[in-house]
Design brief:
It is an enzyme of class 4 (lyase). The protein is α/β, with parallel strands linked by helices. The protein has helices at residues 23-29, 35-40, 47-58, 77-84, 88-91, 99-106, 113-119, 125-132, 137-146, 176-188, 205-221, 234-242, 258-263, 268-281, 299-302, 311-323, 345-361, 380-393, 416-426, 432-440, 461-465, and strands at 9-13, 16-20, 151-152, 156-157, 164-167, 195-198, 228-230, 250-253, 291-295, 329-333, 366-369, 397-400, 405-406, 411-412. The chain contains 21 helices and 14 strands. A four-stranded parallel sheet has the order 7-6-5-12. The chain is globular, with a radius of gyration of 22 Å.
């Protein structure tokens, strides 16, 4: 990595000379207000300082991010991953631009889906985080909508005009009949094309294996073109694979700094081991994207691993980790950590749009768990707003939880009914293979609308077998 002396960033705005000690501080001060940055002591002290920081950031050359690391190269393996994997050839079309010029260019028709796809490996997370700080919500939506990231395992996710749903049938004590009831409910509402994924209450390998066998049995008995996942630690998934358990996707929560990932008990090498283990099973039928990652603004701060970097930039760095392992799906659990990091509905909506934009621009197949905790200043109306905005922005998938209330994780998300609303409003289809299966099963008509069926539908036998 090239070395450069520390740069002090200065600008005169409103008759005041504003100075920022380094790029890390400039980025933090330019971030739209959120409670996590205030808690970390890195937020702008006033609206005036925030505006000045954005004006100053707009004049920073994109190349500067390749020479001034926000977290030292020697101290952080995520920084090394970002710098060592940077594609200089892909970067060349925008290498002459400042952050502000990049923002303006992204909003033009020249920045087409094909152009943005070719550019993605030439961008670093810090570049996309920086440009997002200069954007209004409508800008984040417009650009993200042009970014298409298509992935495959047993179906195809991310095609234009589609939106998938993770069917999340969690249960507070992993009761198989309770989980089965939620799976049936979700399938009858046309959910599950992103993944049928359980957050287990237990970390016991025997329990996890039993749940995995149950999911595998359901998918194969009814020939459902989807994938399953037990959202346990990557090492537990590796352990199940070594025992011959039929694992589809390997899951892990990841973050944007080495220290935070260590707090999750993972390293980049362990993630590689997990991916290799899943690939060795060759369970995909239409593709080999075998990883499922979750992220969320505030995780680095909560783990004491943020290095003074603002939480949105730390989050964007997590997408570089995800990108390195060619995942099937990635989602930001946007309001899950709590109001200490995103205080209210306005901050949650902004964060969700930022995360989706940054991930998509980096070439990551982004979804969103549109959610909040009960002690945040947010409600389901805020989630309706974010769902609508992300649907317009081309989100790859969202979450489907019975009644929007996850009884195991104790937070509020989006329901099976919510995805019907956004499909109707925006005309969004499901993954094509899954859409065809729903029609074969008599669950939807040719237009993708739910059909009426009786208590003798074959899917109800899932309950008998559980």
């Amino acid at each position: 990595m090239k070395r450069r002396r520390r740069v002090t960033y200065r600008i005169i705005a409103g008759g005041t000379l504003w100075a920022f000690a380094d790029l890390k501080q400039l980025m933090a001060k330019a971030t739209p207000l959120r409670s996590g940055d205030v808690l970390a002591g890195v937020a702008a002290s006033s609206a005036e300082e925030s505006v000045a920081a954005r004006m100053c950031l707009a004049d920073v050359p994109l190349k500067q991010f390749l020479t001034e690391a926000l977290i030292p190269y020697e101290a952080d393996d995520v920084t090394r991953l970002i710098m060592d994997s940077h594609d200089a050839t892909a970067f060349r079309p925008v290498a002459h631009m400042t952050v502000g010029q990049f923002r303006d260019w992204l909003l033009t028709p020249v920045a087409s889906p094909a152009v943005l796809s070719a550019l993605s490996r030439g961008l670093t997370p810090e570049m996309v985080a920086a440009v997002s700080k200069l954007m209004r919500n409508q800008d984040l939506i417009l650009v993200a909508r042009k970014c298409r990231v298509v992935t495959r395992f047993r179906n195809t996710i991310g095609l234009a005009g589609t939106m998938a749903v993770r069917l999340q049938p969690n249960h507070p004590y992993d009761d198989k009949r309770g989980i089965a009831a939620s799976i049936v409910d979700g399938l009858l509402y046309g959910c599950g094309d992103a993944v049928i994924g359980i957050n287990p209450a237990s970390d016991n390998i025997a329990v996890l294996s039993d749940l995995n066998h149950m999911l595998d049995e359901i998918v194969h008995r009814y020939d459902i073109p989807t994938q399953t996942c037990i959202l346990t630690h990557v090492t537990s998934s590796i352990g199940m694979i070594e025992r011959g358990v039929p694992v589809d996707l390997v899951f892990q929560s990841v973050a944007g700094t080495q220290k935070t990932n260590q707090s999750f008990g993972v390293t980049l090498d362990v993630l590689r081991e997990g991916r290799d283990a899943a690939l060795s099973l060759k369970r995909g039928t239409v593709g080999e994207n075998v990883m499922y990652f979750e992220t969320g603004q505030g995780s680095a701060l909560s783990a004491g691993g943020h290095h003074g970097v603002d939480q949105q930039t730390c989050e964007a760095r997590a997408y570089a980790v995800c990108r390195a392992f060619d995942p099937l799906i990635v989602n930001t659990v946007v309001g899950f950590i709590g109001p200490e990091y995103l205080a209210d509905g306005k901050q949650i909506v902004r964060a969700g749009l930022e995360d989706h934009f940054c991930g998509k621009l980096l070439g990551v197949p982004m979804g969103c768990d549109i959610c909040y905790t009960n002690h945040a200043e947010a409600d389901q109306d805020d989630m309706d707003v974010l769902l609508t905005l992300l649907g317009a922005a081309g989100v790859n998938f969202v979450i489907g939880v019975p009644g929007a209330d996850d009884i195991m994780l104790n937070y509020q998300s989006t329901s099976f009914h919510d995805q019907l609303y956004i499909r109707e409003v925006l005309g969004l289809k499901r993954a094509p293979e899954f859409e065809a299966w729903l029609q074969r099963m008599g669950l939807t008509d040719a237009a993708g609308q739910l059909t009426h069926h009786g208590l003798d539908h074959p899917l109800l036998t899932i309950l008998e077998a559980s």
